[in-house]
Design goal:
Blueprint: H1 3-45, E1 59-63, H2 70-81, E2 106-109, E3 124-130, H3 133-149, H4 157-171, H5 182-203, H6 223-228, H7 230-235, H8 239-245, H9 256-265, H10 270-282, E4 286-289, H11 293-336, H12 338-362, H13 366-392, H14 402-405, H15 410-419, H16 421-459, H17 463-493
Parallel strand pairs: 1-2, 1-3, 3-4
Helix pairs in contact: 1-9, 1-10, 2-11, 2-13, 3-5, 8-10, 10-16, 11-12, 11-13, 11-16
EC number: 2.8.2.-
Family: Belongs to the sulfotransferase 1 family.
Main location: membrane
Length: about 500
């Protein structure tokens, strides 16, 4: 017997056994994952919202999905509506307030939906903004590199890390490096940029091999490498779905890691997570779209802004009443003792400035809010653009623009779409929700405009209307005179 055949049979048997064992293990692992994902999804879907989702509750939770324009909404909308004393204090590793007893009214954070486990759900309204997943991946890639490039002012990576830590500790400020997901993505890109810069310097490379800013490997990580890296697969792709569902690697849920890992391993299981994310959007007060800037801003102002202003009017009345009480106490203290007077004065000094600021906010209209927003967004965009230009100078000739994105091969765009299947579906769903909200807002505006025109036509008639009324009166008078004249003539003939 051929010696080769003698060994071939045992090897074939062993290989078959290994394949059967692996197949069995894969099936068992899939079943385990399927049970874990379905159990989690069922528990989440069973948590129905009983109150009216269209009514703003005591606490507004802005679930800020990265690179959707949420920072603009925070600075140009929410900070115009809410005073700093109404913002909920928090650090980026834990809440710094008791949400069950706190009097704050606004929480803005990159935390995912699992934050709701820390908040009074029955008293909290949630809003968010979604963006086309392909554009969001581009923007996340660009911003990661943009922020990381700021550290290239240092001679080496060690120096940049030490200086960043020193400044954060000294100034006691929240850095981009403290915020999810940038606390993972920026250090990753920072290390990569220093590595590529060191390689260029050591080999004295000055030539640019490509005109495509997304494929200049000597200066920054190429996009094709970025989107296929395990870090991007875990954090960036389908990031909106995982964030709305509450399953990011920053989640407050114990089972989040297992569920997210299972979905990333078995694509078909993602549909259960997608269903949960869709239900979350259904129950939100407002869902905006980055691409429809004008429509989203208008809808936000009328759906959210109008209700915040209404709440401020009510709270302002309460604050004015409080100030009046303190004034009365001040008068009483003045007649009783000098010590009491100083105490009452201190209380009045603390309350009245807040009251004045709240009065100004409560007198704001939706129209004023939109005007303030348009002015603010122009200034903010200019400052953001200048900061990007200054950062990217350090890795010139790399320059990320909308025009530069057209140089990315279509095959890579298709790959991004494939890697973000869940986000693509969620975005389509969000578009339908937004279309309904926006249509209701437009109809409301049209109705208000018609009512206003009708009222104005009665209250303040135009000269054209006055002329028409006078003409009608004259015609009626003429007819009456003519009829009377006919009657007189008929009597004379008789």
């Amino acid at each position: 017997m051929d010696p080769k055949l003698k060994w071939a049979v045992p090897l074939l048997i062993i290989g078959s056994v290994i394949m059967l064992v692996n197949t069995s293990f894969a099936e068992d692992d899939y079943q385990r994952c399927e049970i874990a994902v379905n159990n989690w999804a069922t528990s989440q879907l069973s948590q129905e919202v009983k109150e009216d989702k269209h009514t703003l509750r005591d606490l507004l939770f802005f679930l800020h999905i990265p690179r959707t324009g949420g920072r603009t909404y925070f600075h140009c909308f929410l900070k115009k509506l809410y005073s700093s004393r109404l913002e909920c204090p928090r650090s980026y590793d834990k809440l710094r307030f008791n949400p069950r007893t706190a009097h704050c009214r606004l929480l803005v954070t990159h935390d995912d939906y699992s934050m709701m486990t820390k908040l009074p759900k029955e008293k909290t309204s949630v809003v968010t903004i979604l963006r086309n997943p392909v554009d969001r991946v581009f923007s996340t890639y660009e911003f990661s590199i943009e922020v990381a490039a700021r550290f290239l002012v240092h001679p080496n990576l060690t120096s940049s890390i030490q200086m960043a830590g020193h400044l954060r500790k000294k100034n006691n400020v929240v850095s981009t490096l403290d915020i999810w997901p940038w606390k993972y993505l920026v250090p990753w890109m920072r290390e990569d940029l220093f590595s590529r810069r060191d390689a260029r310097l050591s080999r004295n490379l000055n030539l640019v091999e490509s005109k495509n800013s997304y494929d200049m490997e000597h200066f920054a990580m190429p996009l094709h490498q970025y989107i296929n890296d395990p870090i991007a697969l875990d954090i960036v792709h389908n990031g909106a779905t995982f964030q709305v569902a509450g399953l990011t690697n920053n989640s407050k849920l114990e089972e989040s890691h297992e569920v997210r890992t299972c979905v990333q391993k078995y694509d078909s299981l993602g549909d259960s997570v997608l269903d949960v994310a869709k239900r979350r959007l259904d129950n939100m007060l407002y869902v905006g779209l980055t691409e429809d800037h004008k429509g989203s801003a208008t809808t936000f102002a009328h759906v959210v802004g109008a209700q915040v202003i209404s709440q401020l009017v009510e709270s302002n009345s309460s604050m004015e009443h409080q100030a009046m009480n303190i004034t009365e106490q001040n008068s009483l203290a003045e007649s009783e003792s000098q010590i009491g007077q100083h105490k009452a004065d201190d209380n009045l000094i603390k309350v009245l400035p807040n009251a004045v600021r709240e009065v100004k906010r409560s007198k704001m209209t939706v129209g004023n809010l939109m005007e303030a927003y348009e002015s603010c967004i122009t200034h903010l965009r200019k400052s953001q653009s200048q900061r990007r230009i200054n950062s990217l100078k350090r890795i010139s000739p790399v320059n990320y623009t909308k025009e530069a994105r057209h140089q990315v091969p279509e095959s890579m765009i298709e790959q991004i779409i494939s890697l973000n299947r869940l986000d693509m579906e969620l975005y389509k769903y969000a578009q339908n929700i937004f279309a309904g909200q926006h249509e209701q807002t437009v109809q409301k505006l049209l109705q208000e405009r018609q009512n206003s025109i009708l009222i104005n036509s009665f209250m303040t008639p135009h000269w054209e209307n006055i002329s028409l009324i006078m003409t009608i009166v004259l015609v009626v008078v003429a007819i009456l005179l003519f009829v009377n004249a006919r009657r007189r003539m008929s009597k004379v003939k008789v």
